[in-house]
Amino acid sequence: MNRRGAAKVVFVTGTDTGVGKTVLTALLLSHLRGQGINALAVKPFASGGRDDALLLQSISGDGITLDDVNPFHFKMPVAPLIAAREEGVNVRRSEVIGWLRRVRGKCDVLLVEGAGGLLTPLGEKYDLLNLGHTFDPSVILVAPNRLGVLSQTRAAMQCLQAASVKKKSVVLTPLGIRRNDVSILTNCAVLTELLQKTSIFEFPRMGSKNRAADKIGASAKKIKKLLAEIWESL
After folding, report:
1. Looking at the predicted structure, is the pLDDT value of residue 37 above 90?
2. DSSP calls for 62-109
3. Average pLDDT of the chain, as a whole number
4. Cα–chain center distance at 211
5. Is 125 a catalytic residue?
6. How many other CB atoms are there within 10 angstroms of residue 212's CB atom?
7. DSSP per residue over 30-54, as a string?
8. Exposed (0-12), middle (13-18) or buried (19+): which is 217, by Cβ within 10 Å?
9. Where does residue 232 rank: exposed (0-12), middle (13-18), buried (19+ CB within 10 A)?
């Protein structure tokens, strides 16, 4: 359990890469800060670009640098472990944990966005789950609302269960939806049935131009109730 006075830690991970983790993290960060909560969001690992980290930095307030948000970044757009090897870098698990502890001391809520999917290798012999043991985090699993999400989500949730993650929620996003994909009509209800005692949320379509800080802030206000419900589930 977290020591008394320590910031609440929430890991935002996904069933895959490109499923909407950054937008959700940014919206939740904007919502929490709008409620007067001293919240920060970080993305420890980034490969192939730092746009996601730049977005989180832009919402985090004054005094937060890009390296504060994203200390480990690599040029090649592949899993961080592979990208680091290509650059001859070895980011030790203890180094990441030490950095997260320092950032945690600067806020009351720390949102930690993962890279890729839940089990994407971040460094030698560790992934996001391995980092979680130190912080007893709540977890938001982001999954695209499309055909195949039932199996992907159940597999990820079994991993979280095996890792003894107590508080976890699922957010279905509209990314990659095809017009003829009828599964989107039932995925939320079926996951609610299959994953009992787990909160399942369905995110509305946000559009493709909402990655600027001001757009994120406006969108967060529009879906304030949904973001509050997600936060309450954790």
Report:
1. yes
2. TT--HHHH--EEESSSS-HHHHHHHTT----HHHHHHHHHHHHTT-SE
3. 93
4. 15
5. no
6. 12
7. HHHHHTT--EEEE--EEES--HHHH
8. middle
9. exposed
Rounded CA separation 25/74 (Å): 21
Kindly list the domain boundaries of the chain, sorted by start residue. 8-232
Give, in words, the CATH class of 8-232.
Answer: alpha beta
- Note whether 99 and 71 are within 8 A (CB): yes
The token pair that represents 85 in the structure block: 């090897």
Residue 39: strand pairing partners: 109
Catalytic entry in 8, 21, 43, 168: 43
- pTM beyond 0.90, yes or no: yes
* Alpha-carbon dihedral angle through residues 77, 160, 37, 43, given to the nearest 10 degrees: -10
Percent helix, strand and coil across the chain, each to the nearest 5: 40, 20, 40
Angle at 53 between CA 129 and CA 184, to 5 degrees: 65
pLDDT over threshold 50, residue 109: yes
Query: Which amino acid is it at 213?
Result: A
Q: What is the pLDDT of residues 178-226, one digit of tens each?
A: 778 999 999 999 999 999 999 999 998 876 555 788 899 999 999 999 9
